[in-house]
Protein: Phosphotransacetylase family protein
Amino acid sequence: MVGIYVGSTAGYSGKNMVVMGLGLRLQKEGLKVGYIKPVGAMPKEIDGRMWDEDAYFVQKILGATEPPELLTPVLVTHDFRINAFSSESEPPDFIDTIKNAYETISRDRDVTIVAGSGGMYSGKYCNTDGIRVVKELGLRAVVIDRYSKELNYDYLLILRETLGDNLLGVIINDIPPNFMDETHTLIAPFLERRGIKVLGVIPKDPLMGAIKVADLAERLGGKVIASHHKADRIVESFLIGTMQVENFMTHFRKHKNSAIIVGGDRSDVQLVALEGDSPCLVLTGNLYPNDIILTRSEVLEIPIIVVREDTYSVAKKMEALLMRHKLRDEIKIRQGAQLVSANIDFEYLKRDLGLS
Structure:
């Protein structure tokens, strides 16, 4: 029974992308792949049953059909948390439930991918953390570390000591171009010398953090007021239009596919953004644009979103959104699978797991 646990140093590190990329590649190579997410923290009712939203989505992509109680044996609902935190005794031990589900799903499979939730220590409060699941189920762990200003070298070294031979290797994800050389020539060799196999380095891809204009409006609590029919345009990043027009134009030319966050009263910046084919304008302060801007928006087919909050607050929200937006669109799934397939050492992985 071969099992791969896909965990990470923190939440929103790319676990779903790696799980789907691994699963689809192994299926393409003729292997029977099982999938389970032991602990689900995103409960959602679908067709009258409670699922973990991520697990439900990933299972569909991998073509599996497990019922929710097997797919995610521990579902962290609001009531679950209240019971766990208010209990004066030790919380119930769910590991046997997880083991039974894993064994059932793994039956007649060449390999089973076990998806983590949050970081490797998430779930410690109810004894369902990734460290324990890996050890109790005898899994090999692949840990993702996503670049966010820096990498979590210390965390990876601690995991090496904690997991020992259960640690198959690490994947370094979302590396920007200016940090790629240092990652390959300094960081990866350092980790390898400390006994941590670097299975792959995945470059930053703007598409993976992109979001549709319609989804952006919903998540920001705003509404699209012009060019509604183009609300499926893709936003990859954002610029704040608070500077003088001349300076703004210089920055804008370097950042294609960037939404422009600007005050509703800055028609000068708004017009430059429209003429420069920004995917959308986000007007702050609940201020509506003048008729000239609205007309140009319709002619150029560039949506305008109006939001209540101030420019700074919207920018902070946007930053978090683009960092944490889920893989749901087919184009992003294909791109994510390609990134994983192209940048991970599958031959080493299969050889180490005895799948070659």
Residues 177-193 form the longest helix (17 residues).
